[in-house]
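Researcher: Sequence recovery benchmark, item below. Answer with residues only.
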């Protein structure tokens, strides 16, 4: 029979191993975007980050539903993970594979869909 202390330990261990809630995952994607993407793509995803004025190729406006709906989730995942050249776009978009896990990149793709209020093919 488990003691109250042992039971509490199991509950706490389970809580630590439980997957992140959807809310926390969404917050993490937004935080990652603000930390790593906003310098070029802007805090609001409009392509007007502080670095944009000095770039020869302007960053994508992630709030542009028409342009963003033309990109599949797979293409968005690939460009985040492997960089712009992976989808025949600008070399100025760096690969983030060494920074983000696949799960975090999927979170960023979902966050991009929130910014554009669109899905692929809409």
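Model:
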């Amino acid at each position: 029979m488990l003691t109250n202390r042992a039971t509490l330990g199991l509950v706490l261990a389970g809580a630590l191993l439980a997957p992140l809630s959807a809310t926390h995952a969404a917050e993490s994607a937004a935080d990652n975007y603000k930390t790593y993407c906003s310098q070029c793509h802007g805090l609001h995803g409009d392509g007007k980050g502080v670095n944009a004025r000095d770039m020869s190729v302007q960053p994508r406006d992630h709030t542009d539903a028409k342009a963003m709906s033309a990109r599949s989730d797979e293409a968005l995942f690939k460009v985040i993970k492997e960089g712009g050249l992976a989808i025949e776009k600008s070399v100025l978009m760096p690969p983030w594979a060494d920074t983000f896990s696949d799960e975090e990149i999927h979170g960023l793709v979902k966050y991009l869909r929130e910014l554009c209020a669109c899905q692929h093919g809409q």
